[in-house]
Each structure stands twice: as structure tokens, then as C-alpha cells.
Amino acid sequence: MAKVDIKKALAQFALFNGLDNVQLELLAKYSQELSVSRGQHVFSRGDTARGLYLLLKGQLKLGVTSILSVEKVVSIIGPGESFGETGLFLDNQLPFYAKATMNSKILLVPEYMVHSLLDSNANVARKMQETLSVSLHQMIHDIETLTLPTAIQRFAEYLLRISNKSTKADNIILPVRKETIASILNITPETLSRCINKLNKIGLIEVNGNHVAITDIVKLRELGFDN
């Protein structure tokens, strides 16, 4: 991957887009560009936090692995999103791993630089609070999804969430592999396949690879709690 203009990249993130040139140049001077290959860990669960991570290109998954080696994906990170905030404020080990699902480009802003900005810039501090609030809201929604009693309801709600973020609500692209979706929904890949086949059979969706056409969004909403 070609090297990026770190100063320009930082300015594209909402957290830093209010900084002046001097502040951005200082931040860029100490930030580190990371290239991560698909399947490579950015950090492992239990590692000590190094700073704030900003995803420029690619995709990552955050997750945990049980003592029985069962993986649970807790979040998918896309370009323009940050991760690792937990480690900035809790003086302990990171509670999850971060692993690239495709070749990715990341900026690492050192912990001491983030704390310096938060101490000196109220606007950055407010935006950090907003970022953490959005993450908390998403986590609560994820927990709500897992309370749905059937796998097909969970998958329906997942599709609706992706649809709400898409420019074409009735024609979406699954952002990750199906086994990752199954992990997010706390079901097996085989169960997810049955859900897809069932929704396709009753005429609510049409699937072609990772492309999903929602053919009856009203009935799909009736399955989830987006009604």
C-alpha cells in the first residue's frame, strides 16, 4: 500500500477535523502508520493499550475467544472509524482483540498525544464523548438483538440495521463473511444458512453471494423489532 499523508488523513476524522494546522502537524509527527495484512492481529486481548487506532482503509473485527476456543465477534470496524478507546481511559489490558479481515491501513495516535489533546481542547474532548456514546448505544442495540428469541429474528434485525446504513435500503451488501455474521448473532453458520434460505423461500429477500435484495421490508420488520 502507498504511504498516506498522515496530516490529511487525521483531518478527515471528526475527532480531529477542528484542529488547526500546527496542532495537526504535531499530531501527525508522532502518529504511526500501520499496514496490516488480512488475518493479522493489530493487537491481542490482554495487550496493553498503545493509543487510539484510526482505520483508513480495509476492515477489522473486534472479538474475544473463549477458553474453549470459540470466537465471538463483538464489532466490525470500517474506514473512518476509530477503535481502542477503552484502553485510553482504563489503566488495564485491552478486553478484546483486533484482527484484519482484509488488507488494512491504520493510524495509531499515541496515548500521551490523545490525553494531551483532551486536556487542552474542549472540542476534542466533547467529540470523544460523542464517539464513546455512539459505541455504547450500538452495544445496547446489539444486546437487544441477542435477546430476540429466534435466529431468524436476529438475522432479520441485522439486515434491517445494514439497510438503514445503506444508500439503497432495499439492495444491500453484507459487509463481512457469513461466519462472522453468525458469530455476531451468536448462532452457528449452519443456522444462519437456514435463516437465509427460509427468508428467501418466503419471499422476503433474494440473495446472490454477498448481495441481498430486500423484497418485502414491511414483513422483514415484523420479524425484528424495527416496527
Automatic annotation (TrEMBL):
Cross-referenced CDD domains: CAP_ED
Domain HTH crp-type: 149-218
Ranges for domain Cyclic nucleotide-binding: 15-135
Listed InterPro entries: cNMP-bd_dom, cNMP-bd_dom_sf, Env_Response_Regulators, HTH_CRP, RmlC-like_jellyroll, WH-like_DNA-bd_sf, WH_DNA-bd_sf
Statement: the UniProt record of this protein carries the keyword Cytoplasm: no
One of the Pfam families matching this protein, by short name: cNMP_binding
Molecular-function GO term, any one: DNA binding
GO cellular component term of the entry, any: cytosol
Record keywords, A-Z: DNA-binding, Receptor, Transcription, Transcription regulation
Protein name, UniProt field: cAMP receptor protein
Organism: mine drainage metagenome
